[in-house]
């Protein structure tokens, strides 16, 4: 299985754009729902990225204190 590299900044920017579009209240209901669903996917990916980074930092700190 090939692991896809996550670009945190790119995903974060996309999420910011979705939030701005939803706040502008200019989308029709169907597009707003699509954007909302995509936003939820992005949140999940970003949370996973941050959790992975946190785990790596914890491991590095544990190694450094050995």
Short characterization:
This protein is mainly α and about 70 residues long. The protein is built from two helices and no strands.
Strand count:
0
Low-confidence stretches: none
Overall outline: rod-shaped
What fraction strand?
A: under 5%
- Rounded Rg: 16 Å
* Integer count of domains: 1
Query: Percent of residues in helical segments?
Result: over 70%
Order of SSEs: HH
* Arithmetic mean pLDDT: 92
Structural class: mainly alpha
Number of separate helices: 2
Q: Would you mind describing this structure in some detail?
A:
By secondary structure, the chain is mainly alpha-helical. 80% of the residues lie in helices and 0% in strands. It has 2 helices and no strands. It is rod-shaped. The termini are far apart.
Show the helix and strand layout.
Layout (H helix, E strand, L loop, with lengths): L7 H17 L4 H36 L2
Notable characteristics:
mainly alpha; rod-shaped; 2 helices; about 70 residues; about 80% helix
């Amino acid at each position: 299985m090939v692991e896809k590299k996550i670009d945190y900044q790119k995903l974060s920017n996309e999420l910011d754009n979705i939030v701005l579009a939803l706040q502008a209240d200019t989308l029709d209901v169907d597009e707003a729902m699509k954007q909302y669903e995509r936003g939820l996917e992005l949140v999940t990916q970003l949370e996973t990225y941050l959790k992975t980074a946190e785990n790596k930092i914890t491991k590095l700190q544990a190694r450094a204190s050995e």
